[in-house]
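Feature request, filed as a ticket because there's no other form

It would be nice if the structure record came with a short human-readable summary line next to the tokens. Right now we just get the raw output. Example of a typical job, pasted below so the devs can see what we mean:
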Amino acid sequence: MYSTIQFVHSIWAYLVVIILVLATFNALIKFFGGKEYGAKDMRLALFTLIVSHLQLLIGLVLWFISPNGLQAIQANGMGGLSSPARKLAVEHPFLMLIAVVLITIGYSKHKKKLVSTPKFKMLAIFYTLALIAVLAIIPWNQWF
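Raw output as currently delivered:
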């Protein structure tokens, strides 16, 4: 079960990064270009929200069953973790949680705006911060 969930988490991560990059650049380009907010923009923002939340749920399940997550903390304590183990058990889940929170805040704030420029501004700010967080904490050596 562990290897299956780890595989799904890894594959789904590619989708999350691709969609988050698309949504971020869409918001930035249309914000600076003064474009109108349309149905496709709403769908892209919503799809980003959905795939990131699903990835969070998969990641939480993985954290609880993985020998690199909760089990590593229970076995070694926080002080007994090596730097790579700490990154997998603590830093990666925490920063990814922050990224999902930023996506959620950006999506909910953009819905409250009535005109296009503030909508794109909210998406651009929060999705860009989330993208930076995601790219900063991806375990690149395990990803490729």
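Something like this underneath would help us a lot:
The radius of gyration is 17 Å.
DSSP finds six helices and no strands in the chain.
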